[in-house]
Amino acid sequence: MIQIKNKIVLLLSFILLTWSCANTKNNTSNCLNSVKGTLVNKTGLDGCGWMIALQDGKTVNPTNLNSFDVKLIDNTKITFGYKEKNDLFDTCMSGKIIEITCLTID
Questions:
Q1: Is there a contact between 94 and 18 (Cβ–Cβ < 8 Å)?
Q2: What CATH number corresponds to the domain at position 74?
Q3: pLDDT tens, 29-58?
Q4: Is residue 30 situated within a structural domain?
Q5: May I ask which residue range the UniProt record assigns to the signal sequence (predicted)?
Q6: 47, 87, 28, 56 alpha-carbon torsion, rounded to 10°
Q7: Which pTM was predicted?
Q8: Backbone angles phi, psi at 89, to 5 degrees
Q9: Burial grade of 103 (CB within 10 A; 0-12, 13-18, 19 or more)
Q10: Which helix (H) or strand (E) holds 101?
Q11: Above 50 in pLDDT, residue 21?
Q12: Domain count, the chain
């Protein structure tokens, strides 16, 4: 009886883990107010790293780009959602600091 319970718990855990991972893939279907942008390598500038150029010509500085499964290649087109982080500052000073909420490669 205990072995059956253990197998059921293990199966349910596997199903829940698989389901939760499937729902956290980098997609914009759950992403409100997503925008298009382009990855830009600004590591040559003092205090800068990878940034995102928006279609209006402005750039934003993401704090959590490495949290997403994306290869950092210059000029890669992306669609992403974000929140502005007005409580942070950095030394790059080349755009608003943001936290990405969702991201897909176009």
A1: no
A2: 2.40.50.500
A3: 567 789 999 999 999 888 899 999 999 999
A4: no
A5: 1-24
A6: -60
A7: 0.70
A8: -145, 160
A9: buried
A10: strand 96-105
A11: no
A12: 1
